[in-house]
Amino acid sequence: MRMAQTERKTRETSISLKLNVDGEGELKGEIPIPFFAHMLSHLAKYSLFDMEFHITGDLEIDAHHTVEDTAIVLGETLRKALGNKAGIQRYGHFTLPMDEVLTTVAIDFSGRPYFHYQGPALMPMGKFGIYDSELTHEFLHKLSIHAAMNLHVVVHYGQNRHHIHESIFKALGHSLRQAVALDPRRGGDIPSTKGIL
Q1: Considering the domain boundaries, does residue 53 fall inside one?
Q2: Where does 83-191 have alpha helices with state H?
Q3: CA–CA distance, 134 with 14 (Å, rounded to integer)
Q4: CATH of the domain at 84
Q5: Residue 59 and which of 128, 155, 184, 186 are 20 to 30 A apart at CA?
Q6: What is this structure's pTM?
Q7: 131 close to 169: Cβ distance less than 8 angstroms
Q8: Burial of 102 (0-12, 13-18, 19+ CB in 10 A)
Q9: 80 lies in a domain?
Q10: The domain containing residue 123 runs over which residues?
Q11: How far apart are CA 13 and CA 109, in angstroms?
């Protein structure tokens, strides 16, 4: 079982995560931002990661610090759980339809952070409760940095803003599941001609 845990405390947030990459897609714990919890539930479900979060933050200001630091913790914990990445598929991609929306997410656990988003601008979309639309972009960007992965997200088309965000998290979950899957033909080999990721 590939498991790890991380705790991060700052003057703005306190976040802990227990992660099991080889889980069943269960999300547990305290996530005090309802829409964010909804999105993380999709991420867990389709990645088949078990994630137990305990999150507090300065929500009296807004949700920015809490979402950003959660992405940092998830990225760091994922890196710990994968170790030297021996035997993994390394790459994952998934195109997900959700009603009128079509979204593609592609990732590479290259050890080199890179994030690219293409699609409807997330910033002017408004709020989901206390969750600002642009926080999805912030979450994805910080996740790519701290998981040390390439992350490309393309929303090909769509209008409903809930569908757009939900399709991103679902497609990300599917892509992560592919990328971290162990390749039985590879054995313990690291999937790089460099011999290191």
Answers
A1: yes
A2: 135-146, 161-180
A3: 22
A4: 3.30.230.40
A5: 155
A6: 0.97
A7: no
A8: middle
A9: yes
A10: 3-180
A11: 27
